[in-house]
Amino acid sequence: MKMRAVPGARLAHLPQVQRMDPAVRRDIEVVSSILPFKVNNYVLDELIDWDRAPHDPIYRLTFPDRAMLPEAVFGEVAELIDREAPRAELRGAVHRARSQLNPHPGDQLQANVPQAGTESLLGLQHKYRETVLVFPGQGQTCHAYCGYCFRWAQFIGVAELKQAVPGPETALAYLAGHHEVSDVLFTGGDPMIMSTDRLRGYLAPLLEPRFAHIRNIRVGTKALSYWPYRFTTDDDAADLLRLLEQATAAGRHVAVMAHFSHVRELETAACREAIRRIRDTGAVIRAQAPLVRHVNDDPAVWAEMWRTMTSLGVAPYYMFVERDTGASQYFELPLHRAMAIYREALSSVSGLERTARGPVMSASPGKVVVDGTARVAGQDVFCLRFLQARDPRWVGRPFFAKHDEHAVWFDDLKPAFDEPWFWQSDPPRQGS
Ligand SMILES: *Cc1c(COP(=O)(O)O)cnc(C)c1O
Ligand code: SF4
């Protein structure tokens, strides 16, 4: 199977879209001039159920919708497109629209960049003691795009791509000198977009004895959802599987950190074959995704996803809270609602299928899970806990925020009982 990618600008011309309401086609044109979109023949032919579009969950995941933009922003750009305004004018409006959509949430990419002397090692991120993230320069795109992607700005050049390493050398040199690091996570974009040869350049050296401290090698990818042929019929698919096998044979735990947004993605023959082949290498597949409106805001969808994953040998890992960027107003859910969906899904599956932690926010002090709501000393509160933290001493410590039915993200929360957050009176340790 050969991949044919369809960029945002061509979506409105797809035959499947031509059959839809003309108003939908215009909305697609306007929204895709501002936010990045990309699908491919697998997504179009095997994932989306066109009889149900635009209400189909995979269509919602990958196609533009008018409600992804604030009404005023949509209106301004639509007017320019309708009257075929001069290019420069349109470009200006698009630029303004993008900058209103919080393109750099929490500046996660700039934060946590390690230093070597006075030099910043751009393309690496070392936030939690035991884990280093590597952003390979050639892996900063994906086989298709998710409408909720928090890296959207880099796909359209608003965020510069400088937060990626040009090759393996920087990452390897850093890791060789940091024996506290046990986990390396290759991320993107999607590192599986790279050729196997390129990926081998990053992975194979980690199997040498000088990297014995790197016990776990993770690769974050949505290829099982957007292009499972990467592991089956692509020219270098067999080579890729051999590379994973070589890593497990060298004693490393290899985790394919898969991103599954909906149970549909697990149902195709291609995906199932890809999962089988990856598991045959000894690598483990763990799954994570954000909980988002229009796609998977239904406990039955998560329950079915966790059951299906478990029966296919994929371990549920995280349920994330959608980040406050890009089309977030379209996808976001109040935290109390996210928590209710998580609990209802959890309670309807077996213990083995309950391994996803969530709902989790990747916030600046750490990964915060919402454990529930409670009434403490006469106040309604959210019960929160760090699963990961800048300072390992914070991990596992329960803390409380004022209950707020409108809160959708960590920054919306206020500490309960009019005290500061506990870590504000316990500053992080310096160094490492
Ligand atoms: C989630 C995350 C990790 C990995 O955390 P685990 O709990 O080990 O999965 C590492 N670094 C960053 C910046 C993260 O957001
Ligand atoms: S697969 Fe990940 S990086 Fe790629 S578009 Fe989706 S959320 Fe963004």
Automatic annotation (TrEMBL):
The keyword Transmembrane helix does not apply. InterPro entries: Aldolase_TIM, Lys_aminomutase/Glu_NH3_mut, rSAM, rSAM_sf. Keywords: 4Fe-4S, Iron, Iron-sulfur, Metal-binding, Pyridoxal phosphate, S-adenosyl-L-methionine. The keyword Cell membrane does not apply. SUPFAM superfamilies: Radical SAM enzymes. Its cofactor is pyridoxal 5'-phosphate. Transmembrane segments: none annotated. The lineage of its organism: Bacteria, Bacillati, Actinomycetota, Actinomycetes, Kitasatosporales. Gene3D superfamilies: Aldolase class I. This is Lysine 2,3-aminomutase.
